Amino acid sequence: MPIGGYAPGMRWERLFRELEASLLDTAALERDALVEELVDEEWTGVRARDLLWGEVVLDVLGAGRVEGQVTQALTDLVVVESLRQEVVVARAAVIGWCGGQGRAPSPSPVLARLGWARFLRELRDEATEVQVVRVDGGRVEGRVEAVIADAVQLVSARAEEWVPLSAVATLQASAGQSAF
């Protein structure tokens, strides 16, 4: 019988079990660290525009809060549909948001590049009264008369006014008018 009630093989077995457990713990820690690094790396490739989808509350420079469902996520614009109507929002004017439900689907390359001109020409063709909110908070209402590369001309009973597209925060059909 072994001294002290231990067989020499039992001590080695316990030592091997402890080493195996230690190696498994180390492997699990390394795996968890790798997963964390991969997740961080994946997030670095995500852009804000990818997350603006679904139900959102946008804080828009000059326009305040815009709430609703993002139905189109284009390169420079998002279309938000609320109970009242659709609002086209310049991504550059979005200064914060709450909500969003995962990643927006990727639009076709052609659709992704369509910008203000597409919406403005549609409103012009329908002779729809619109409201433009500029990034400085100013509001311009009227009917779209002309759309050029970097500006829109709105005509109202009061005046004809040009608004640079870079100054547009939001665009929507005036109350009671059909939208896009």
Characterization of this structure:
With 180 residues, this protein is an alpha+beta fold. The chain has two domains: 3-44; 49-173, SH3 type barrels, CATH 2.30.30.600. The protein has helices spanning 8-44, 48-51, 109-113, 116-125, and strands at residues 54-60, 64-73, 77-81, 86-90, 94-99, 129-134, 139-147, 151-155, 160-164, 168-173. The protein has a ten-stranded antiparallel sheet. 21% of the residues are buried.
Keywords, separated by commas or semicolons:
180 residues, alpha+beta, SH3 type barrels, 2 domains, ten-stranded antiparallel β-sheet, 4 helices, 10 strands, rod-shaped, DUF222 domain-containing protein
Number of domains: 2
Global mean pLDDT: 85
Low-confidence stretches: none
Give the C-alpha Rg: 29 Å
- Following the backbone from N to C, one meets helices and strands in this order, namely HHEEEEEHHEEEEE
Termini separation: 92 Å
Report the CATH topology name of the largest domain. SH3 type barrels
Put simply, the count of helices is: 4
Structural class: alpha+beta
Q: Which geometry do the CA atoms define?
A: rod-shaped
CATH architecture of the largest domain: Roll
Mind summarizing the main beta sheet? 10 strands, antiparallel
Q: Strand share of the residues?
A: 35-45%
Tell me the strand order in the biggest sheet. 5-1-2-3-4-10-6-7-8-9
CATH class of the largest domain: Mainly Beta
Protein name: DUF222 domain-containing protein
Organism: Aeromicrobium alkaliterrae
